[in-house]
Design goal:
It is a single chain. The chain is of the alpha/beta class. 47% of the residues lie in helices and 13% in strands. It has a 5-stranded mixed β-sheet with strand order 1-10-9-7-8, with helices on both faces. Strands 3-2-4-5-6 form a 5-stranded parallel β-sheet, sandwiched between helices. Helix 12 links the parallel strand 7 and strand 8. Helix 4 crosses helix 9, helix 11 crosses helix 15 and helix 16 packs across helix 17. The longest helix is centred in the middle third of the chain and has 25 residues. The structure holds 5-phosphoarabinonic acid. The site of 5-phosphoarabinonic acid (PA5) has 14 residues, from loops.
């Protein structure tokens, strides 16, 4: 495993080290449950060995489909919601240049996302933005019946068919869905779309290393083999045979559960590199949907620092003491910018002259860490050497594995999401979907 470190030294003022050490057996047992398939939700463990089991044939099929899309489109619209879009969005954002969107001549197609909201303005503005651009679409839905992506796809499909004709349109659309079930599968078969399968035993939020994540990423020109190499090394590093003290997933799961048991109910994921913003969003879905059930679970929140030190910083420092913070710390930036000396020094910043911006960022990070600890906020640190395909692959797998262990330690099924159905039922009733008439009437009285 190339450099990846979890550092929990700074929680010991809040939870004695002995208490964490005494969780060794419990965490190893939870990790065993993930591997033995004896725990709750054991029909959704297909993600555990995904990185080590992906074959060259699967890579080739994904790359071939991606090549076809890349050759035919300047903009590829990826349609999906939740686990069917956050993984690829997270990796893409992490690996992209912050100002990619300003580049006029691009060697790779631009990836845009749709189907993750029901905003009329969003879909209108998207269609307007790509009016004079060659487009293609990747539509992703495991169930094949989720309203948001289905709605967006209906509109985008029509647009593609209008422009290129039905036959050519079918070559510009690739679907990722269930092998047999769901409206999207039926539609893809009927229209003759190329399809990729989301395995039955992999839930949406654990699907980034299936074609759900890999196809959009390959279409964007990301080195998916390197991403998987990172994930595979992390699969090994968090394996069932790796003892607690060397197993970063077990350590993270122990630390956050120990803090939770002491009343720290909110975990804030903090980043100092803005391009990790969607890693935070992906992480929030992973942990929120996996753990928040049966009246239990750590609430996952996030901040982008140092920006949010000027908004949420006050609360973190002095608000209700139910928080702990997990920082993703990056050792080396990709570029070098040095602060110049200014002869007038009107801004008073000459004390920083000659320093790299990253050095200043690091001191902000370390200063914040100490301030937050002094303010009563325990701090976990995840250290990556740099941001690249390998480290991001490792990071995502690390979070998945720790989430499963952590969920088992909490005593819940980390792989279902029964609560997501409540809003859908009400929305369908309010929209008079056939079969929901009575509920609709009842709900309207309550509006
Ligand atoms: O993690 C999950 O299972 C969910 O967040 C799903 O990814 C999300 O609801 C989208 O579902 P689907 O891919 O079936 O459209």
């Amino acid at each position: 495993m190339e450099k990846f470190k979890i550092n929990i030294d700074k929680i010991y003022g809040f939870v004695p080290k002995g208490e964490i050490d005494s969780m060794k057996q419990e965490m190893e047992a939870c990790n065993s449950l993930v591997h033995s398939g004896q725990g709750k939700g054991n029909d959704f463990l297909g993600w555990v060995n995904l990185p080590s089991s992906i074959t060259d044939k699967q890579f080739s099929a994904i790359k071939k489909a991606a090549k076809n899309l890349r050759e035919n489109a300047e903009v590829i619209i990826v349609i999906g919601i939740g686990g069917s879009y956050l993984g690829s969005k997270a990796v893409l954002t992490a690996l992209a240049d912050n100002f990619d969107f300003l580049k006029h001549k691009k060697k790779d197609p631009v990836i845009v996302f749709a189907g993750q909201n029901i905003s009329e303005d969003y879909i209108h503005e998207l269609l307007k933005a790509v009016k004079k651009t060659d487009i293609a679409a990747i539509v992703i839905s495991k169930s094949g019946t989720t309203t948001e992506p289905a709605l967006a796809f209906r509109i985008i499909k029509n647009e593609i068919e209008k422009r290129y004709g039905k036959k050519q349109a079918a070559k510009r659309i690739v679907a990722v869905t269930d092998a047999e079930r769901g409206a999207l599968k039926t539609l893809s078969t009927q229209e003759g779309y190329e399809t990729f399968v989301i395995p039955d035993n992999v839930g949406g939020r654990f699907s980034v290393f299936t074609p759900v994540g890999l196809l959009p990423l390959a279409a964007a020109g990301i080195d998916i083999k390197e991403l998987i190499r990172g994930a595979k090394d992390m699969e090994k590093a968090t394996g069932v045979d790796v003892p607690f003290e060397n197993n970063p997933a077990c350590i993270y799961a122990a630390a956050r559960n120990a803090l939770y048991r002491k009343g720290m109910k909110i975990e804030i994921l903090a980043i100092y590199e803005p391009k990790l913003l969607y890693i935070e969003e992906w992480w929030k879905q992973l942990y929120g949907e996996s753990e928040g059930k049966e009246g239990k679970g750590i609430f996952p929140a996030s901040v982008t620092l140092t920006a949010d030190l000027h908004s949420m910083g006050q609360y973190i420092q002095e608000g209700e003491r139910t928080l702990f913070e997990t920082v993703i710390s990056i050792d080396q930036p990709q570029h070098e910018v040095i602060v110049e000396e200014d002869k007038d020094n009107l801004d008073g910043l000459n004390f920083l002259a000659g320093k790299r911006i990253s050095e200043i960022n690091r001191m902000a990070e370390l200063g914040t860490q100490i301030a937050h600890i002094d303010g009563g906020v325990p701090n976990i640190r995840i250290e990556l050497e740099k941001i690249n395909e390998y480290t991001i692959g490792a990071l995502l797998y690390f979070f998945e594995k720790a989430c499963a262990i952590s969920g088992y330690a909490l005593g819940i099924n980390p792989f279902d999401q029964p609560g997501v159905e409540a809003y859908k039922k009400n929305m369908f009733a309010l929209l008079d979907k056939p079969g929901y008439e009575n509920e609709g009437e009842e709900l309207r009285k309550r509006l």
